[in-house]
Amino acid sequence: MPPHMLERIARDADDPAMRDRARRTLALTSAQFTERRTTAAGAPSPSEDFVPDRTINDAGHREELPGRTVRAEGAPATGDQTADRAYDWLGATFDFFEAAYRRNSIDGAGLKMISTVHYGEKYDNAFWNGEQMVYGDGDGVLFTDFTGPLDVTGHELAHGVTQYTANLEYYGQSGALNESMSDVFGSLVKQWHLGQTADQADWLIGQGLLAASVNGVALRSMKEPGTAYDDPQLGKDPQPAHMDHYVETYRDNGGVHINSGIPNHAFYLAATGIGGNAWEKAGRVWYDTLTGGSLATDADFAGFAAATIQTATGLYGADAVETKAVSRAWTGVGVPLEANG
């Protein structure tokens, strides 16, 4: 959940209770992001046993983790749709990374996948805290249950993948890349789960999360950044799609949830330019770049763009359609490739 949405609610919502909940959510989320940044990123030795190990906990609307365990790996459904959906979406994300990239869980070494549901009272967010997933139920007025969209789970768990690989610093352009990597793989998890090609996908993040009263379709659009919502209570989607509209701000760790629209759109352009299943070629380029070990933790957009072109060249050749599509994608969003040539 981008903080600018919550800040708008905290400042302008007509309902005082909603303003208070937004302020509380901002405070709790800020604390959890701090915890995530300070979690050790070292991974244990790889395991060849590629099976998920899921645990679902219930916070009982308290703000304490991990909560009471309600479902362990292999146990039957609980009957609580939120808990069972969290279990299913952990499995779908695990299966995606294994099937697409032969990755064994979040850390590549069989990390246990833990989720806590029913966190807080009408908590309007979901997050990865460096060790586990946490979901709020939403307030029911502006946001629905955060376990609903599969790509929300995929997005947050991809923060874990980034944590255990490139560990991109969560500030400025490297932070926007961190957010973008989560949107990329969150969208790819959904596309893989639905069997959609790049042309068939909606490229929306959080589709279905906005309540019926909200004028919007999702939290973000990778296809058309800046168009996901335009609502009196949430404001207008501020994401740029091009460097000409890059937002300079000290808020949100230097605008990580806003400027991520630029690399998001670059991936969309690359994936649709290549065609077919986005996780197979464009996704492979982004995944290998993230996990290859050479990406600087403070990489900026130009540095990441150059790294993806180098990866694509290694995979497909300098003159390949795939490599040219990646290069065109970055120039298409105004990222200067010559700065890294």
Question: Largest beta sheet, briefly?
Answer: 5 strands, mixed
In helices, the fraction of residues equals 40-55%
Radius of gyration: 19 Å
Strand content: 5-15%
Give the H and E element order: HHEEHEEEHHEEEEHHHHH
The global form is globular
Report the mean per-residue pLDDT as an integer.
91
Number of strands: 9
Oligomeric state: single chain
How many DSSP helices? 10
Distance between the termini: 35 Å
Walk me through this protein's architecture.
It is built from ten helices and nine strands. It is of the alpha/beta class. The chain has a five-stranded mixed beta sheet, sandwiched between helices. A two-stranded antiparallel ribbon has the order 6-7. The longest helix has 23 residues. The two termini are 35 Å apart.
What topology emerges from the helices and strands here?
Layout (H helix, E strand, L loop, with lengths): L2 H10 L3 H22 L16 E5 L9 E5 L8 H21 L11 E5 L8 E3 L4 E3 L14 H14 L8 H23 L9 E2 L14 E2 L8 E2 L3 E2 L15 H8 L1 H14 L7 H10 L9 H16 L4 H12 L9
Parallel strand pairs: 1-3, 3-5
Antiparallel strand pairs: 1-2, 4-5, 6-7, 8-9
Helix pairs in contact: 1-2, 3-4, 3-5, 4-5, 5-6, 5-7, 7-10, 8-9, 9-10
Offer a few descriptive terms:
two-stranded antiparallel ribbon, globular, 9 strands, five-stranded mixed sheet, 341 residues
